[in-house]
Amino acid sequence: MASALLCAGTTATLALVALASWPAEEAALSFVPLLRNHPERKVPAPVYTGVPAMDRPEVEDSSSTKLVVGAAAVVAVAIAGHAARQQSSRIPMRSRGKNFLRPNAKGTKPLIHWQIARDFIKDAAPGIQKKFRKASDMEDFVKKNVAGKMQFQWASNQFWDEEPLVPIDGNSGARRETVDHHMDEIVYVRKFLKPASFKKLEIKNWEMPDSYTKAVTLKELVDAGVQYGHASGVWNPKMLKYLYADFDGTHIFDMVQTAACMNRACYYVMEAASKGATFMFTGTKAQAAGPVKKAAERTDSWYTDIRWAGGILTNHWKIREAIALMQKMQAEQDQGAWKILSPADREKAENKLIRLTRKYHGIQDMTGVPDIMIVIDELKERNPIAECVRLGIPIVGLIDSNNNPDWIDLPIPGNASGVKSIDLVLGKLTEAILKGKALYEATQMGDREVVQPEWDPWMFSMDRIRWIRRRSKRQAWHKTLYGGYEQYKIAYPFGRIPKVAPFDKNFTWPMKV
């Protein structure tokens, strides 16, 4: 504001200096266009009719002329001050840059309270419905605002339907049709219609029998180099409980804990396979690509070994469209349909097929979501882990010293960067899965254990969504009820889990009358 006023003052001073040096007539006439163009001051321009320019009479420097000059100077100062005020009012807006919707500074009102950011249709709808209740109320308004000659005849006096002016789902157009179930939404289907047979929350209290057979020995782990972690400067403090020592700048894993976790994970996948569980392997780092593909092909499971395409689990039906396109292009290439294309179009189609094959070649036959996910290196596979957490899929993972073990249900702490270590872990898990599948196939159809469907409480918990469980960690009631946030996390490691009713296979939503 001060800089704008300084500029205005300088402008006015220069104008007065110019006035003092000009003749009276030129000074008066020089401000006439300024006054004439100003929106609030209309001054007619002097008109000389029938008099040559050289014969026009000169205006004497009288008192009236000086009065006009003084008035023009005052007007110039006023206009400069008005411009300065306008410029100063724009400065805060200009300080935000091009994005004027961004808040200016701390303490500014939230964006939703700004008129420019509000949904004016939703804001106006209640007022319009209150003002125009009947068709007769709306008739005059329509006649006055619609151009042309036309006649209106209302079928009834009921102007507003039961459906709202602004659709609840946000989609404009035709009326919404009542849909009982959304079969194309995988989260909805897994939450209400086909709940998971193997649940994340059950693993916390799951225990192996005392007479289990060991899947791995300490010598096998040491020979494969499973004990080596990352450099001591690159680590996650949450992995401290699995570490044994820091040797020459490298973390060393506790092999006793690693062997115990390995045996526990192998027995769990064997038991799940004996009940008909499906598996998916994920390892997109260079060291894990080969062992992952080999293990998945041995167990006839799905896998991703090059790149995880977002939405394979949470948006599976759209992924199926991409897989169908890949299979169609593959058939066209095999049949020689691309031979008639130009070299540029043929190269473009081949590159697109290569990209699709890299992403979806391991899930071509995938018809649903897996029951259990096996991952290599949590830091590298955080996207598939996030999708598994959202759907409540149990995760078995080989985690290194720089990984976060919070969302791995059956962690196997060990070297996730060595090919021998990865090969050993996946080999043991593959043998356990094959043993479980053999037990499943050996059991008669009527004698197989049937897992009764039950609604998964995890799917009804809002804490499974990342941004909700992270928006406010520490609350006052944590200290009041549990003594602190840490004690609350010990009591509820998965957050607030609601109680659910018994499963109803005939579940439907109440229909709108």
Question: Can you characterise this structure?
Answer:
The relative contact order is 0.09. The strands form two sheets. A five-stranded parallel beta sheet has the order 5-4-6-7-8, sandwiched between helices. A three-stranded antiparallel beta sheet has the order 1-3-2. Mean pLDDT is 79; it is low at 1-61, 87-96 and 172-176. With 513 residues, the chain is α/β, with parallel strands linked by helices. Helices cover 45% and strands 7% of the residues. β6, α14 (382-391) and β7 (395-399) form a beta-alpha-beta unit. The chain folds into four domains: 2-46 and 67-94, no CATH class; 128-170, no CATH class; 190-313 and 369-460, Glucose-6-phosphate isomerase like protein, domain 1 (Rossmann fold), CATH 3.40.50.10490; 462-491, no CATH class. It starts with a helix and ends in a 22-residue tail after the last helix. The radius of gyration is 38 Å and the shape is globular. α10 runs parallel beside α15 (419-442), α12 crosses α13 (343-360) and α17 crosses α18.
